[in-house]
Amino acid sequence: MATQHSRSAARLMMAPAVILLLGWMLVPLTMTLFFSFKKYLPLRGDSVANGLEWVGFANYARFLSSSSFWPSVQATLIIVGGVLVITIVFGILLAILLDQPMWGQGVVRIMVIAPFFVMPTVSALVWKNMFMDPTNGILAHLWKAFGAEPVQWLSQASLPSLILIVSWQWLPFATLILLTAIQSLDSEQLEAAEMDGAPVLKRFWFIILPHLSRAITIVILIQTIFLLAIFAEIFVTTGGAFGTKTLSYLIFQRVLESQNVGLGSAGGVYAIILANILAVLLMRVVGKNLDA
Amino acid sequence: MGRIVLDQVSKSFGEVEVIPPLDLTIDDGEFTVFVGPSGCGKSTLLRLIAGLEDTTSGHIRIDGEDATNVSPAKRGLAMVFQSYALYPHMSVRKNIAFPMRMAKMSQEEQDKRIDAAAKALNLTDYLDRRPGQLSGGQRQRVAIGRAIVREPSAFLFDEPLSNLDAALRVGMRMEISELHKKLDTTMIYVTHDQVEAMTMADKIVVLQAGVIEQVGTPLELYRTPRNVFVAGFIGSPKMNLIEGAEAAKHDAHTIGIRPEHIDVSTTEGLWQGTVGVAEHLGSDTFIHIHGVPGCEPMTVRTDGEFGVKHGDTVYLTPNLAHLHRFDAEGLRLE
């Protein structure tokens, strides 16, 4: 009964949600775009009240020509890619493991989810001080126990360490989604495959993995969105040093450390473009799995 | 070849014994139906034969060889599941090819067998579709196709028709029977529907609580049920079982008379009763009659034109040649 009347009523009732969402996105986006074309250095006395000087694409050119730009894009992509690979591979393995009937299943499942509840700042600090500290960290003690020189994780292997920390946080998420997907697999399909002569690994490859493809797609898409923006983990561990400066961290430095709002805003627009390029790529590659 | 022998096979899940030790022989080329109410262990028995469950004790021999501890894939049996268990992400062709692909059969041979199976099962036009795009009956045929191409020594069917609508079920019943005639391979078929059992089987195995109640041809079971359970389970509508004084007249604890072996009259007869519900099927009418001592209600079958309505008084005369007598243990008296 989609009459003219009910349709306009529906629009009216959806309006608050639409306006709120639009406002939520459009206001910051417009402000970012606005500032990105202005010279805005608050410490030099620039302010919105006095009017800002229009500089055209100067901020964009400067952000792009900075020696930190391409390395930051690279670091971002490496972290996103590394974390995705680790969380999905181990997520699938853990999900299969947790799907097996075992004693204390409920408790184990809750414990597996636990890291997801730890705040990123806290977990990064725990990793930095308790595991990766080159003198007091557990890993350092482990290395020493075998007579090896402790690794200075966050400076010598900064990107892998960061990937490890972030993966630890996101593994529960991937595991959880993949576990529910595995549980929805019809056991008769596995039995049929078994009778058809498929051994365990082939059953995994031909039955379980295709069944998981949609869940894997969802994990990739959601995690990419969040991983592009990781910040706290970098802030409390390396502070952007040792090649761990991601695009979002670079923007933070431009805006707050250099107090250059215009330059940072231009970086923000680049970040939006990068995120959209990735999104389009991902939808091209894995998005077809979402079609029913 | 496909002779399957169960020797003292039993199955327990933890403390619960689902199937007490039983013996059963299924001959080569035989269409055997396991029938019984739900939870009677018929599916478990089939899964034991398939190898999807391990036996608790006893031996399963397939073609004379002990297969008790052989993996399901190596028993040479093919199974059709109740849910069809098609692989949803593969096309029909790939579904059917899957067992051959696992057996590393040559592509040429695979194509040959797929074409043959598709032709036999009317699936040629659907080979490139996904299972999700097929109707229930077509999915069923794909599942059968996947079983056929392996050329197994026996087919196992686990309630394959229970997800189909009534009309389709009758059609598929015929198709499976014809397939059996054509392939002449051993088939074991599990169902709770005694009509399927009666119409398809060479041999029916009636199960209750994991125990074999009777094994025989459909007509043997119909004519000489070994006990009250089989008598009540085989035949549609159900046999009328009468206890008490009426049974005592025939020196039995219980007597049974099938609805089709009772004459109904509006004027005279042995028993008197009133009509409850009359089900007019066109060809037949099933009348449920109340007031006959020892049997409430009694069902009788008459021709379709027999005109009675609710509340009418009718007289019934059983055909004594078809009377079944059972003792207090429920066993048949000759």
From TrEMBL, chain A:
Cytoplasm listed as a keyword: no
Cell compartment(s), UniProt: Cell membrane
CDD domains: TM_PBP2
GO BP annotations listed: transmembrane transport
GO CC, alphabetical: plasma membrane
Family: Belongs to the binding-protein-dependent transport system permease family.
Protein name: Sugar ABC transporter permease
